[in-house]
Prior knowledge:
Blueprint: H1 6-19, E1 36-37, E2 42-43, E3 62-74, E4 77-84, E5 87-90, E6 98-106, E7 109-118, E8 121-128, E9 131-134, E10 142-150, E11 153-162, E12 167-174, E13 177-180, E14 187-196, E15 199-208, E16 211-218, E17 221-224, E18 232-240, E19 243-251, E20 256-262, E21 265-268, E22 276-284, E23 287-294, E24 297-302, E25 305-308, E26 315-324, E27 327-335, E28 340-346, E29 349-352, E30 360-371
Antiparallel strand pairs: 1-2, 3-4, 3-30, 4-5, 6-7, 7-8, 8-9, 10-11, 11-12, 12-13, 14-15, 15-16, 16-17, 18-19, 19-20, 20-21, 22-23, 23-24, 24-25, 26-27, 27-28, 28-29
Amino acid sequence: MKIFHSHILTAFLTLILASSGHCFEPQKKSGQNPHQNLCHGQFSRPRHDSASHPCNDPPPQPITDVYAGGYEFGGANRVATLWKNGAALSLSDGTSDAVIYSVATNGNDVYALGEVYDTNNYIVTVWKNGVATKLTAPGEGASAYSIFVSGNDVYIAGQKIDNIHHQFVATLWKNGIPTALTDGSEYSQANSVFVSGTDVYVAGIGFKGSNGTSKVWKNGVITNLTDGTKNSQVFSVSVYNKDVYVAGFESNGFNNIAKIWRNGFASDLTDGSKFSGANSVFVSNGGVYVAGYEGNTAMVWKNNAGSFMQYTTMGSGAESISVSGGNVYAGGHEFNNINDIAVIWKNGIEAALTDGTHDAKVLSISAITHQE
Length: 372
């Protein structure tokens, strides 16, 4: 009498059942997750459709959605435009001038910040999933350039008229409530906001005389990055492991030099032989990525080493940068000798969002990777 070992019997039954379109799973051990698929040796979703063999159920794949905000002219006015993976959504109707300056995501929600012209003034406007909300009223005198969403809180950086000194003052809005960041004694504006934990960082500029002074605020406390002896401006702030990175430029007396500040210490990104600037900074896994321009060419720097972005006509510029899923995305424009074309570069390779028949630009980009 022959004795069949249990592992031989298991293999035999598995072969028979698999050939009939079934997946044989040996009895699970005590404490084992009931959704662990032993055909894969990993956790996966149960499949009940007859079209797919359960042993061939593929794992979820990562998907990257790329959102870009800016404008494309429609007739005499700019149309506020949001692109998702290259598909355009017009957020204004073209009857008045409108533009998107900044985009942000939070879970399944997509935010766009910009302004719409109305009654002799621009109205700061936030679109959430395409639905517009006015942040300011006609005649209020305000502009906003950056949005950041943290949990249930929405932060916006810009500027607002001070009714005492009658000039623009750097302003931070939290959930629609504005707070002045300076006393109004000088012209100032806030260009970028970033939230890390409970700390709120803002980058911007102040003017006394003809030169701009670059500044960063942490929870409302101001630090000057430059002394005002040379013109300087900053446009973007990012925080990683408590290190604060700010991107902008400072003049050398002849040309503007693209610069990155880390915790207040500046590094030149160019040698000053050409006009240059840094418009956006993004930190990912310790890598510091900066988007900007040198001369008439869009540039991306990683850890201070620059790379030219691909372009095919007369010149280009990169306005914003985002890193996700191991890929680097930059948004900006390319000039075709007639109009600017809205473009996105993925790892330096250009993809046009518009055909060049109307002037258009990408001013902000946000890439988010998630599981399908």
